[in-house]
Amino acid sequence: MSGELEGSILVTGSNRGIGLELINQLAQTTGDESHIYACCRNPEGPGAQALRSLKAQHPGKITVIKLDMADEDSMTAAVQAVSQRAGADGLNVLVNNAAINKPAAPAPLSSTGKKDMMEVYETNVVGPFLLSKMFLPLLQRAAERRPSDESVGNKMSCRRSAIINVSSFISSIEKCPENFTIAQMYPYRISKAALNMLTRCQAEDFKMQNILVAAIHPGWVRTDMGGEQAPLTTQESVLGMLNVMSSLSSKDCGTLLDWRGNSIPW
Q1: Which residues fall within 8 angstroms of residue 32, CB to CB, at 6 or more apart?
Q2: Residues 6 or more apart from 121 whose CB is under 8 A from it?
Q3: What pLDDT sits at residue 225?
Q4: What are phi and psi of 238, to 5 degrees?
Q5: Residue 177, preceding bond cis, omega within 30 degrees?
């Protein structure tokens, strides 16, 4: 269950949609010793009002941090801010949730240009790549300090040290023929497929340090990106995601799962 998650947890893109609901549920379910870092591009802007209200409801539990996934200097500053507060405990979970979709859906080939491709790739792939690299020392610190549950053959978990990359079912190359016509979304699809490969590479690279890396598809959710026709609420999606995250173990490292824990083919 989601209540099993603990420690320091950072979520990008947390001012709305799935990211905001992740902060909401984590604030309610994690213990008093846990701390949540809520990152977004403009913490003082009107788009972050709900996040600021959430922080006020949980005094001392949430730290809001300015973070632009397309700005390396912004990432560096965010890592420094987390490092100063987390100290020797490090960072237990990094959730790479922030993503953009350009042009507007259905984003067919005819309306998609080079600028769209580059901007989406920079935020959805390069951003998580750089942020994970920058946070690696803090993730390593957490992995070293937290004991593993080796009695059941599990050295890795989100209670120890993990990177969760929020992907999508439309990143699946195998499943593309089944859903391409309803959401062509060239830049978004391609960026999420690249994020899947980043997940696999990180999983191989970091497993010797007992840092779990996995990708999760949150479902088709009623958000600004998902649209009103989506069948899932953010509450339903995030509850499922946190349940999956809390159950992840060594065997799940390098996998792509949906919000119910089902495997999605690459």
Answers
A1: none
A2: 187, 190, 191, 194
A3: 73
A4: -70, -35
A5: no
Give the per-residue pLDDT at 105.
82
Tell me which residue of 109, 117, 127 sits closest to 13, measured CA to CA.
127
* pTM of model > 0.70: yes
Q: What's the CA gap between 266 and 8, in Å, rounded?
A: 30
Strands 212-217 and 35-40 come out as: unpaired
Whether the link from the prior residue into 43 is cis, omega within 30° of 0, is no
Q: Where are the beta strands (DSSP E) in 101-209?
A: 162-166
Contact 24, 51 (CB under 8 A): no
User: CA torsion angle for 222, 56, 136, 73 (degrees, to 10)?
Assistant: 90
Domain boundaries defined on the chain: 2-101+128-169+190-258
| CATH topology assigned to domain 2-101+128-169+190-258 | Rossmann fold (3.40.50)
